[in-house]
Amino acid sequence: MTSLQKPPGPAELQAERQRATFPVRQMTYYLDGGEKQTKLKERIMLQFERDPVWQVSDQHDLTLQEIRERSMAKVRRAAYHVANEPMHVFKQRMELISVLDPGTWTRIGVHYGLFFGALRGGATPEQFSYWAQKGAVTLNGMVGCFAMTELGHGSNVSGLETTATYDETSDEFVIHTPSLTATKWWIGGAAQTATHSVVFAQLYVKGKCYGVKNFVVPLRDPETFELKPGIVIGDIGAKMGRHGTDNGYIQFTHVRIPRSYMLMKHTKVNRNGDVKEPPLQQLTYGALIQGRVAMVVDSGAIAKKALTIAIRYAAIRRQFGLKAGEPETKILDYVIHQYRLMPLLAQAFAMHFTGIEVSRMYEELMDSMETLQPGDKELNDVLEKLKEMHGTSAGLKAFSTWSTLNIIDQCRQACGGHGYSAYTGLASLYSDFAVHCTWEGDNTILTLQGGRYLISCYREAKAGKSQAGGVAYLNNLDKLLNKRCSAKSAEEVSTLEVVEEAFWLVAAQVVKKAGEDFEAGVKRGLREDESYEECSQARLFATKIHSLGYLFHRFKGAIQRSPAELQPILNKLCRLYGLYAIAENSGPFLQYGYFTPLQVDWIRATVTSLCKDVRNDAISLTDSFNYSDFMLNSPLGRADGTAYEAYFGMVQKAHKAGAVPAYFQKEIYPLLHRKLEADDVLELDEEDE
Amino acid sequence: MTSLQKPPGPAELQAERQRATFPVRQMTYYLDGGEKQTKLKERIMLQFERDPVWQVSDQHDLTLQEIRERSMAKVRRAAYHVANEPMHVFKQRMELISVLDPGTWTRIGVHYGLFFGALRGGATPEQFSYWAQKGAVTLNGMVGCFAMTELGHGSNVSGLETTATYDETSDEFVIHTPSLTATKWWIGGAAQTATHSVVFAQLYVKGKCYGVKNFVVPLRDPETFELKPGIVIGDIGAKMGRHGTDNGYIQFTHVRIPRSYMLMKHTKVNRNGDVKEPPLQQLTYGALIQGRVAMVVDSGAIAKKALTIAIRYAAIRRQFGLKAGEPETKILDYVIHQYRLMPLLAQAFAMHFTGIEVSRMYEELMDSMETLQPGDKELNDVLEKLKEMHGTSAGLKAFSTWSTLNIIDQCRQACGGHGYSAYTGLASLYSDFAVHCTWEGDNTILTLQGGRYLISCYREAKAGKSQAGGVAYLNNLDKLLNKRCSAKSAEEVSTLEVVEEAFWLVAAQVVKKAGEDFEAGVKRGLREDESYEECSQARLFATKIHSLGYLFHRFKGAIQRSPAELQPILNKLCRLYGLYAIAENSGPFLQYGYFTPLQVDWIRATVTSLCKDVRNDAISLTDSFNYSDFMLNSPLGRADGTAYEAYFGMVQKAHKAGAVPAYFQKEIYPLLHRKLEADDVLELDEEDE
Fold first, then answer.
1. What sign has the CA pseudo-torsion A147, A152, A153, A158?
2. Which among A164, A237, B172, B545 has most CB atoms closer than 10 A?
3. Where is the active site (chains A, B) (predicted)?
């Protein structure tokens, strides 16, 4: 339709980019952690774009089996890269794979994250090299999966039913599925990929149960892919998203494995059936945290993708006119559209910086745990940090994944009808991401864990034990809780310092409330676990406010470390993040008296004006996320603004215009050409009843 | 696995049903509007269940084309029923089709709701009988679609680009798509179903534009299904949900239709090109409201489906134990799980009763409009009611569909991992429902319309004009706004009367705030539309609180009309709905001083205790919704509690266990058996850059 009037788009984005108040490329470097990292990301993105294996533009019209076949080809690519590039490059590659193709990310992650992680965390050095030689590093010979959850058991690992019984006569373990609900379920890679599995099972030796341990169980013959005797695996089939990953179920019927296939870094069973349990059980928790940290990072990355699409489209799309006779208004110029998207953009920055910070803390912690031995003088310090990491990451995983799920949905809705098309990418982004709220610990359960941790910190602080890190605000509570915001204007109420103090105070109040509820329960005669249960809602609420504040404090810290030319815009975004969070949750901020009603009105007004302000940089901020068009895979998000042409082109390419449906003769013709007399009245008339 | 221990389930639900505190069957009758209506619903559900055409249990493994073919067969069934049953029976059938198969509901609705609705609303009596004879009632000869939205235009109908130019020489209209963005887009039924379309186009006569009018345009030859000359239709293909509906795009290139194909009930064009415009433009708005009302009703119906699944599963699933050595705890017994689901159950009742009430009001209004003529003495009264209906339905559509989308997602998350399986039904329920937040008016835009209406009511009330219906609380504001809750205990604060007054007062406050912001803008010299734009956020907020309260007031009214034996449980649910809404939005209730911080703490505690109380009736309440297992199509929601067996059975049936993937030789074997020496290091090392 070249002779027709061109759709809006390219000129709009060009004009938007003129408005930038900060150096975009510098922002990219800062977000990525330096120019070198940015260039690495760009090189990997270019590889994806040029490699036919990574093609994604037609994925919405593939069948499940076609998607899985393609995803297997990508697993092969990943195996190649693992063997040929440094770990930090592979890690960066994986982060980008999650943005490009979450289903494949999971399929690769099942082996390299879960199976391989279980070996690293649970195998003795000898066991580790044994499996490495079998192909656990290169996939040359074996691919692993991770059989933890069962049909009847998800979050509660200690309640798993699968058994591993030591048979002294043959020096073997017998792995068995004792009931339908014990069927291993949701096992990624089990249906079509894995030759081996790490299996979580209750260890029984001489009739005694030692709790859940890990066992490597061969599943299939790598030559024929036939199942080993005693093993039944079925495909779990269609799911909401992550179609590239083949989840399956596994039933074991008295399957025998050598004793040496139990991972024995921690608990050991010797030939005589003597069981030796590890001195430091807590150190095995580290692996749990890794997944949570990865999901905080992923939340930021996916939020940035969704926002790039929705904000670029909002700068192109015009709808309704404020003044008769003039062109319609760009939807990004509407107050309400700014309010829909700008606070979420600020939230994405908060999650991004928090992800970086939490990853750093996690890696430091793992390094210090690596060499730790019982009796070391650093032990207590490391255990304290582990406890903080465990408690904090629980709440952060929950609220980051919830936030991003909400961001994706808001972005989809902000694109109007076109957000509902598969080709614009937000629908699958949502369905792929949604599982983050459930796996690696159901979000709600995690908030309760987080709340339990906060209550214990509160009680320690009250007993005089100084708290460090993200809960240091619980020290000197008496002084903190008396503070009130003294701001006399909208300007004064919306500084970083006021927001910071507001979050400290209100987080302290809600944690204190949860702690008091807990203590009151104990005083009434409840057991501790009963009392924790009773104050569940208070725990959830405490974790929510604590986590919102935690993100704010990380964001504020990231501004202080940033180049001077980025500070003004980051400052605006950080204030917007914090003030919006307060406006949306104004209840506790009023209830505990930190702000007056008038101050809350000022805050609301400031959120609106910050939205208008940030809007000027909106396109440049999405540019700074630096995702290529190929990575975004959404015509609405195209960097050159040709949204409508690209969208129309995709739809045209996918479906030949004017096609007569294959079922025309069977289903449509008879409808249009039927004789009405043939329609006898068979319907009962309810009047006759 | 018959020899193994049986999974939990049947006994659990049996025990739950013993706990009912109300007569379940009576509740069903009350919800349905009487025993007769319940029996009609049951008859229709049984027909679906027995008719192979309506089979849905295998739908998650079908391709898009297979789903569409099946859905076409269902359209044929619907056409049969239209011709053979009374309208109220067909209406009931359609409500149930929406619960069973939303994609097919839309495909049928495109003709019978949109196309046929446009004829009824826009055709002269002669035109109406002409199209009826062509098959518009029976689909014997034609099927219609509704071409309103364009690639570049959704919400803003008056900005549509398609033109209909009167050619006096031939007495024809020329329908034309002047640009890419003018392409009709998202047109349900266009891709594979429709022979005709109602087309929205700018009417041009003698060079003058008269705005958007409706034209019937033949699209395809009913004999061959070939496109008519000048018409290009393409398939829009994959979308987030509603796969049964075939959305397409349409481009018209100078397509000629007889003058009589313009719908001329309102605006008329005669042979000479004289245009006669209608005296009462507002009366054409009625059709817009119908869709909104249908979506309020659908929100209740779908929420009940999601909740039945999640709550029944919560009564079966056990996870973690509170006491060592005892069986794990039923998840419905956890405080937090009650808090996740019970308030949503209460919300579903509120939406259900509001849907009934708003439908009734809508039908009464339409009846009175049917015969209305300019100059009638009832005219002003009807126009007032139309204005209220228009304003109120906007906010209700937005907040009901948002609420239900949230309910579905919460229910999915509450089912843990199994919520992510396609077979458990919540994933597709979400993707199918999501479009309700966008079509028939984007929710955010609708809240602004609602806010505009509330501001105008506020200003009228202030000027002394008494307000009726749902905005009557705006009369005597001075007296209302001084009220404060005087409750001295948790019990006193949580009565229906307190909640009612709280919503009146706080709704009045936020409406007043929006009105004052608007007036301040005008005082500053803004035009009215500019000032409305500036106070967008306040308008949205006002509509939110008003709508939450509106639902509460309808629910309270429904209790008063209910049988005495249902009142205790309905009373609890209504209080739970209202108090939860206050707890979740405590900000404005504190900000405007209706409640004190202590009272808000009491409210939170009451919500928790009401959740525990309602939990006793939870299964019976889902039973009262009376959806058959077939309608629910989710193993987790089975009425007999055999969730695990049914789920495992579905998965087993869909996928043969032990199958070797078709791509084993192509993609897996080469990975497992490759020679590592062949992996040359081709990867650039970034250290060299």
1. negative
2. A164
3. 440 (proton acceptor)
